Amino acid sequence: MPLIVGRQPVLEALKSKNFVEKVYILFGAKGNQINQIKFLAKKRKAKVVVLSKQKFRELTPSTATQGVAALVGEREYNDIDDILKVAEEKNEKPFILLLENIQDPRNLGALIRTAECMGVHGIILPKDRTANINQDTVKASAGAIEHMPIAKITNVSQTIDELKSKGLWIVGTSSRADKVLTEFDFDIPLVLIFGQEGQGMRRLTEDKCDFLVKIPLFGKVESLNVSVACGMFLYEIRRQKSMTNKKSEGEVKE
Question: For a 10 Å CB count at each end of the chain, is N or C smaller?
Fold first, then answer.
């Protein structure tokens, strides 16, 4: 069974519907989060084991555990229809993130964290050539991964065709784009694609997109870290959606 580490990731796992078998706590670890973890573990009927420093180090050599680890069940992945159902239940236009060939598990975790904070309905990942979801991913996501529907796919091109057939617009992020982030109207059923760190989307994927959009850069460095760029895009999209909602509420009141 996978082992996750860190107070916030373990706490979020206990808050989620995912199975947690056992929680390990370093002897002497204290604090409000530790108390919450013990309470939720008892509520979820997950066994709590207090370990000495040596035993805890044998369990996980990581030095960034914050004195907490947990054995959790294997992650169950969703399908695309599950993600679309999330949007439907919230009465919102679909807002999906497709991450093509992200290689760094920590980048993947940061992307998942940002997506969850910005109200993305779900994330799509290729099964091949993508970082595995591991301890680093879970910790970098600060537990957000426990609340984010994730679908794994075998073929990006076919998936894009499927999404288009369901009425979604495909927007790729590329430095070669003519359209600028703040000038594009994102208030559409949306799939936003980010490609591999340092390389971007594959050309085949880029050609499949309905639109290409970029962040204008003003320095000498020609690119941003993928998780930073994604954060900028997702914030702008969420800002536009909020403005649209406020405008609609105003029209209803009138």
Answer: C
Distance CA 110, CA 231 (A): 9
| b/e code 233-247 from CB counts within 10 Å (16+ = b) | bbebbbeebeeeeee
Question: Is the predicted pLDDT of residue 251 greater than 90, yes or no?
Answer: no
Tokens of 114: 């940002």
Q: How far apart are CA 5 and CA 71, in angstroms?
A: 9
Give percent above pLDDT 70 in the chain: 95
- Residue owning tokens 């904070």: 117
52: domain CATH number?
3.30.1330.30
* Range among 110-114, 217-221, 243-247 with highest mean pLDDT value: 110-114
**Predicted confidence (pLDDT) per residue in 10-43, tens digit:** 998 999 888 899 999 999 999 999 999 999 999 9
CB 147 within 8 A of CB 73: no
Question: Which of 37, 72, 107 represents a domain boundary (last residue)?
Answer: 72
Are 229 and 177 within 8 A, CB to CB?
no
Helix, strand or coil, per DSSP, at residue 178 = coil
Nearest CA to 59 out of 87, 24, 34, 35 is that of 24
Examine residue 9 and state whether it is found in any structural domain, yes or no: yes
Residue 49, SS3 per DSSP: strand
The whole-chain average pLDDT of the chain stands at: 91
**Which helix (H) or strand (E) is 190 found in, with range?**
strand 190-194
Number of domain units in the chain: 2
- Chain segment 69-83, per-residue pLDDT in tens: 999 887 788 999 999
Query: pLDDT at position 254, please?
Result: 57
